[in-house]
Amino acid sequence: MQLKTIEETIAAAKDTSVTIKAPGTVANMVCGFDVLGMALNDPGDIMTVKLIEEPVVMIHNVDNYGLPTHPQKNVAGVALLDMIERMEHRVGFEVTIEKKIMPGSGIGSSAASSAGAVVAANHLLNNIFSNEDLVQMAMLGEKLASGVKHADNIAPCIYGGVTLIRSIHPLDIISIPSPPLYVTLVHPQIEVRTEDARQILRKQILLKDAIRQWGNIAALVAALMKNDYSLISRSLEDILIEPIRSILIPAFAEVKARCLEAGALGGGISGSGPSIFMLSSDEKTAREVETTMKEVYTYTGIEFYTYVTTVNRQGVTLIA
Amino acid sequence: MQLKTIEETIAAAKDTSVTIKAPGTVANMVCGFDVLGMALNDPGDIMTVKLIEEPVVMIHNVDNYGLPTHPQKNVAGVALLDMIERMEHRVGFEVTIEKKIMPGSGIGSSAASSAGAVVAANHLLNNIFSNEDLVQMAMLGEKLASGVKHADNIAPCIYGGVTLIRSIHPLDIISIPSPPLYVTLVHPQIEVRTEDARQILRKQILLKDAIRQWGNIAALVAALMKNDYSLISRSLEDILIEPIRSILIPAFAEVKARCLEAGALGGGISGSGPSIFMLSSDEKTAREVETTMKEVYTYTGIEFYTYVTTVNRQGVTLIA
Questions:
Q1: Closest to A207 (Cβ–Cβ): which among B176, B205, B222?
Q2: DSSP state, B196?
Q3: Nearest Cβ partner for B215 among A35, A206, A235
Q4: What ipTM goes with this model?
């Protein structure tokens, strides 16, 4: 960073604004607990960020979720406050957030807010920060939301596609090429707190179960890079986390079994839930999977939303 | 299998023989315990298999290792006995084995014997069995040698290159493409029994350690398929098995540290040891790594052998 360039950049950006779309994301992808994630083309949050002179963050919510507007209590806020500190308090940001990814859905709602905010702000600053810097800032939002600084939603939200977090300290993010994939999601309207979903996991596991899990994640990465749908399907197995977390999600086993019957390659809990995602190799199957999900949840009487979408390849995108 | 074809095949093959080279293999590849393996161009066993009428296995050793010649006590023997059973006792085999991979080296000596035998026999039978069938038969040799039916040496020995065993039941083997890699090995002349090396491992591990391990194996697979040497290097980390097993190998920590200083991408214990392998991106570095290994082990006073080789891409190959 050269000081002169920064000052010129700030002067040029003052009072300008940018509007972005921040994609929803599916963390874990069944066998990649805490390390894999993928971005979705739908749903996505819309955010407008304006560069202001005063080194503060002002947040306006234009949705009905009643999220905090105090910057230190808002996931976008804490990420932008970190950016302001890195900019030595020479800038501030005014943010307008229209959430389309429901908070608590397990589709990376908090990640979209914090990642979207810093990508937009960085654009105003002529991309002074690297994608890795942005992930670091946005992870502060995840820490605020769930108590843990994790990147498995943040990384795909910023990079797009499927991402692997090899390591958090030091941060090591790898983009995994993948074939066309259709994603069907169902979001049953129940509350699963990320913290609780983490709390119920066993801290100790059997070595033999871990071996099976790392065989699956290694195979899934190979399958995605080889465009091998059959192997993707075989690798989408989680014998460690899903058996425990799925207890928190009504009708999980039935939805999963019936979606596989309907032709889905596989799927499971999106992040820590309650949403369930299923991958398909074509749109027709993905729509049949949606019909199946609707049938099961209509029967349970639980309110729900469904989405049929594809893997987002660009990450956060500028729309104005 | 059509009966007529089998009978014709047997008649045509009677009293013919084939000579093969069965490659040494490195199982685990640091972060892929029990699921990854790779084949080496050197060392490799030389075996001649002849098809005979009597449904028995006759074994001749033309080396000085004094391995059992009773077929039920010999790893090649039990694999061939299984093939004879699958052939409904209509054939038998006479096998001559010249071992170049020292038994107990940790470079897949038993796998080379059993895999080499069944690949050679299958060639005589006009490849009536699939590679997966052959892996199943050869795994019986591994069970005899170490008490566990594992495929992480057998699969690369038969398929060549780097292989991933996603699952043993059902068998699911995936070939992982890889860039040119040089392999330097040192085999210190101490005994580490595979059974003992397995016994000392903890049956329970921490979930957080497992997550780090599956981040590494996923990254290693991606790195191999992307020809990304820097990522290969970063991914060659094992926080679970190596800290325990390396205790059995004198000077392990020093060899590893000095080989990394010499420019190796990374490496660790070959299989369950005692051999240590290191990967390099070029031959010059691989030779410097060999010099380093020689220096360390000369100093310890332990007898040792070293090899500088490359990844074998063909698996078991016919040489006559």
A1: B205
A2: H
A3: A35
A4: 0.95
Least Cα separation, residue A112 to chain B (angstroms) = 23
Please, is B254 exposed, middle or buried when counting C-beta atoms within 10 Å of its C-beta (0-12, 13-18, 19+)? middle
Interface size, chain A vs chain B, as Cβ–Cβ contacts under 8 Å: 124
Is the whole-model pTM more than 0.90? yes
Yes or no, beta carbons of B235 and A166 under 8 Å apart: yes
Sequence length of chain B is 320
B55 to chain A, closest Cα gap in Å: 38
Nearest CA in chain B to A220: B218
Nearest chain B residue to A204 by CA distance is: B206
Element (H, E) at A216: helix A207-226
DSSP for A43-94, written as a single string: EEEEEEEEEESSS-EEEEE-SSS----SGGGSHHHHHHHHHHHHTTT--EEE
> Catalytic amino acids of A?
142, 194
**What b/e sequence results for A28-52 when a residue is b if at least 16 CB atoms lie within 10 Å of its CB, and e otherwise?**
bbbbbbbbbbbbbbbbbbbbbbbbb
Q: Where are the alpha helices (DSSP H) in chain B?
A: 3-13, 75-86, 109-124, 131-146, 154-159, 194-199, 207-226, 229-235, 242-245, 252-261, 283-300
Q: Give the type of residue at B290.
A: E
Per-residue pLDDT of chain B (320 residues; tens, 9 = 90+): 455 578 888 888 888 999 999 999 999 999 999 999 999 999 999 999 999 999 999 999 998 899 999 999 999 999 999 999 999 999 999 999 999 999 999 999 999 999 999 999 999 999 999 999 999 999 999 999 988 889 999 999 999 999 999 999 999 999 999 999 999 999 999 988 777 777 889 899 999 999 999 999 999 999 999 999 999 999 999 999 999 999 999 999 999 999 999 999 999 999 999 999 999 999 999 999 999 999 999 999 999 999 999 999 999 999 98
Look at B219 and A34 and tell me if their CB atoms are within 8 Å. Answer: no
All domains of chain B, ordered by start, with CATH? 3-176+313-318 (3.30.230.10), 182-310 (3.30.70.890)
